[in-house]
Specification:
Layout lengths: L1 E3 L7 H13 L6 E4 L4 H8 L3 E4 L18 H20 L5 E4 L5 H9 L3 E5 L4 H4 L8 H9 L3 E4 L2 H10 L5 E3 L19 E6 L8 H14 L5 E7 L4 H13 L6 E5 L4 H4 L5 E4 L6 H10 L3 E5 L13 E4 L2 H8 L16 H13 L2
Parallel strand pairs: 1-2, 1-4, 2-3, 4-5, 5-6, 6-7, 8-9, 8-11, 9-10, 11-12, 12-13
């Protein structure tokens, strides 16, 4: 299998891609195409997967001021990426081609040229899959290209419904992502502080400012409620982190909130906390809900895309507005008691996935 990643850093979609590959490696050999150098390459090669870098971002990036929306230089870069992807497929004797998220179309075009089965893996409900103009600046071209693929795999019912409506003739399935999690000993402290965590990429789309403002409002409602919020994860946008620190100071939350940037092992970090907060505008939070549950955390999740169907009466709360989040943080809406109980079977999900791929 040749698999094209949409970018080469440790994004949520790429982490999911690696999890799928680890589950499928006994049945299939993989070769990954990355659009640039990044920490994904080391991670993949440490797992024993081969990689090739082929620059191919231009396909999805409109050029302002151009009538066609895309410059000839960008078009040529995309055509070169298609040619190079065909070469990789031939060299690796590929029998199937995968594309990770909707942004890069070059592998799909290469698969069509070589008459190989192609599969889309769509991990996001919002910005990743619906915020870009695809196909040399024309969305209808993008849709027609997608309709030539044998299978679309979505990670939530919301994404499946959206694409099933747009492309009723395409085979579309929903698979919840596999999540590897190495159990560790209990690490939570014995204090009575309710410890909230926002974990993952520190970027504007993840909703940190909304959570900080809700936390400040909750403290005014319940000043005696002991709360702490830690924001931990990689960041390539220093100005955004600075803006968060400024907001923390403006809201007088210096003694409540800590920001730590960098890469952290989930098995080491998650068990330290009580509740994981996900406030993203476009989050593949199905995997995050499962990770939190495996670590023993409850979750507070913004009901905005993602996989809310993975929420149940044991694992946390969905919220629909900043006011509702404030009420949860203030203790006016109680978290469900007792241990987390999953409402899905990972073994069943992976068995279904293998069956879908086997018949392509």
């Amino acid at each position: 299998m040749v698999w094209l990643a949409h970018e080469a850093n440790m994004s949520g979609a790429n982490i999911a891609m690696m999890e799928y590959a680890l589950v499928l490696k006994d049945e299939y050999d993989f070769h990954f195409i990355l659009p640039h150098a990044g920490n994904m390459r080391n991670a993949l090669e440490n797992m024993g997967f081969a990689t090739t870098i082929i620059h191919q971002y231009g396909w999805a990036v409109p050029v302002p001021g151009k009538r066609t929306g895309i410059s000839w230089r960008v078009k040529l870069r995309s055509l070169k990426a298609i040619r190079d992807t065909c070469r990789v497929c031939k060299k690796e004797k590929a029998t199937m081609v995968f594309t990770n998220t909707q942004i890069p179309f070059t592998a799909a075009v290469a698969a069509n040229k070589l008459n190989l089965p192609h599969v889309w893996w769509l991990h996001e409900f919002g910005e990743e899959d619906f915020g870009f103009t695809i196909g040399f600046g024309k969305r209808d071209i993008g849709d027609r290209l997608m309709e030539k693929s044998r299978l679309i795999i979505c990670n939530s019912e919301a994404i499946k419904r959206k694409f099933a409506f747009r492309m009723p003739g395409v085979h579309i399935e929903r698979i919840y992502q596999p999540v590897s999690f190495k159990k560790r000993a209990e690490l939570k402290s014995t204090t009575d502080i309710i410890k909230y965590l926002m974990f993952g990429q520190i970027v504007a789309s993840k909703g940190h400012k909304e959570v900080l403002e809700a936390l400040a409002a909750a403290i005014k409602i319940a000043p005696l409620r002991k709360m702490a919020l830690h924001i931990k994860g990689p960041s390539e946008d220093e100005s955004y982190v600075d803006s968060l620190r400024s907001l923390i100071k403006a809201l007088d939350l210096q003694d409540k909130v800590i920001i730590d940037t960098g890469f952290f092992e989930k098995e080491t970090v998650l068990p330290l906390y009580d509740v994981l907060i996900m406030a993203s505008k476009a989050e593949a939070f199905g995997r995050a809900i499962i990770e939190a549950g495996k670590a023993g955390l409850k979750v507070i999740v913004k009901n905005n895309g993602g996989a809310p169907e993975l929420m149940n009466t044991t694992n946390g709360l969905l919220y629909n507005s900043p006011m509702e989040l404030t009420a949860i943080l203030a203790g006016e809406i109680a978290m469900p008691p007792g241990p987390v109980v999953f409402n899905y079977s990972e073994e069943t999900e992976m068995s279904n996935l293998k069956n879908y791929l086997a018949i392509l």
